[in-house]
């Protein structure tokens, strides 16, 4: 049943201090059952997420991954065990197991909101950026223009003043540069961008800020390639354990 509410979007940003991962809960408050999605849950935080889902009274439809994570285990498989209505979602290009495999530009609806899956490969071959739209914005509000995105969940393609590394999981710096410029920097300047990680205590940015101030992606492609080539980063501690698990929704057995 549809209801009138001041801001129909319920939005929560959650943080895992071990892996510096952000998980996002979104729901449509215009519907009595509050249909919801959870983006990039972490396995060790699933009880926290379930508690919040219960407290807020939302009905979780989808557990979504932006990509096959290398640094932590996804919580989507455990969520499916706890909540039978939940379907796991990832890109087809990831090659990972899930209930729903997204092709580029496919949409995931929860209530009147939907997330469009923009292909943003480069950090991994199957990275998606989920762009949030309201299919039925109410008239007379700041967000009333139909089809104006409000926010986007960039995974590791774009980090605040940074970007995902490109030295494993079919990483490719040239592809990443093209992805971000074609599918993220073309969003309206005021679109809020939420990454999968932040290592410096920052929580949100905008398209305008990143086009101007991102020390890697605001540069020319040649400069970007050279920056990425020079990055000297340690391999994620959990990579050998996390990658095979995340190819199976984060759980050891079949879901
Ligand atoms: N030290 C951490 C891993 C840190 C890391 O490699 N982060 C990734 C995103 S998770 S795949 C990354 O792309 N970072 C880019 C950057 O510039 O920070 C660990 O051991 O888990
Ligand atoms: Fe990653």
Automatic annotation (TrEMBL):
Cofactor: Fe(2+)
Catalytic reaction annotation: S-sulfanylglutathione + O2 + H2O = sulfite + glutathione + 2 H(+)
Cellular-component GO terms for this entry: mitochondrion
Gene3D superfamilies, sorted: Ribonuclease Z/Hydroxyacylglutathione hydrolase-like
EC number(s) recorded for this UniProt protein: 1.13.11.18
Transmembrane segment boundaries: none
Family: Belongs to the metallo-beta-lactamase superfamily. Glyoxalase II family.
Protein name: persulfide dioxygenase
């Amino acid at each position: 049943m549809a209801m009138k509410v001041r801001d129909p979007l319920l939005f929560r940003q959650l943080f895992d201090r071990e892996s510096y991962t952000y998980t996002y809960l979104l729901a449509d408050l215009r519907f009595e059952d509050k249909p919801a999605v959870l983006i990039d849950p972490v396995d060790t935080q699933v009880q926290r997420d379930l508690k919040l889902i219960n407290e807020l009274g939302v009905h979780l439809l989808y557990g979504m991954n932006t990509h096959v994570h290398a640094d932590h285990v996804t919580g989507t498989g455990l969520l499916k065990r706890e909540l039978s209505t939940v379907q796991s979602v990832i890109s087809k290009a990831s090659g990972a197991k899930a209930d729903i495999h997204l092709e580029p530009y496919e949409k995931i609806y929860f209530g009147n909101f939907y997330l469009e899956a923009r292909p943003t490969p480069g950090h991994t071959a199957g990275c998606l950026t989920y762009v949030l739209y309201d299919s039925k914005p109410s008239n007379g509000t700041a967000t009333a223009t139909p089809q104006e995105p409000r926010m986007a969940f960039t995974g590791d393609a774009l980090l605040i003043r940074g970007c995902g590394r490109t030295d494993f999981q079919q990483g490719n710096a040239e592809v990443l540069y093209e992805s971000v410029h074609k599918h993220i920097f073309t969003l309206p300047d005021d679109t809020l961008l939420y990454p999968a990680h932040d290592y410096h205590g920052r929580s949100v940015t905008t398209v305008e800020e990143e086009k101007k101030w991102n020390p890697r992606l605001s540069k020319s492609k040649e400069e970007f390639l050279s920056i990425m080539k020079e990055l000297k980063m340690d391999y994620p501690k959990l990579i050998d354990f996390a990658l095979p698990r995340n190819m199976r929704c984060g759980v050891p057995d079949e879901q």
